[in-house]
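Researcher: Here's the sequence for the chain we discussed earlier.
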Amino acid sequence: MSTGSTSLVVVGVDASRQSLIALRWAAEYARATGARLRAVAAWRYPTTYGIAPDWSRMDFEAWATQQLETSVAATLGDSPDIPVETSAVEGQPAPVLLDAASDADLLVVGSHGHGRFSGMLMGSVTTHCVEHASCPVVVVRGEARVAAAGDG
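Model: Thanks. This is the structure I predict for it:
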């Protein structure tokens, strides 16, 4: 749990439809409760087989940070009315989210990310977070359209 007077809500964002729906839900919850919002994205170096490509010109952390900030801005607008911090962290998604939520009052995740298998209720990252988080976890499911800020 957060130690300050303001509670903390952590949300996992991988730019998938479900994660953007979870981001919207987490922002609305943070707004209603006066909490801070921390949007977290995990990134990894690509797996390669055979001859390794030259990744020296690619800044994966900068790319992940830009994708996260774009997702937040597209979902919440450029000036959300709640404190929002973003964090792109190298690592596997579940451990990254659990670490980011170690001081949180709530962890919010979408039911599926980019690795979705048809017919599964929850993805592997979501399941891992539900089973191992040190705070309550909200799993957001839904097919609702995620409107950009300013949409009616």
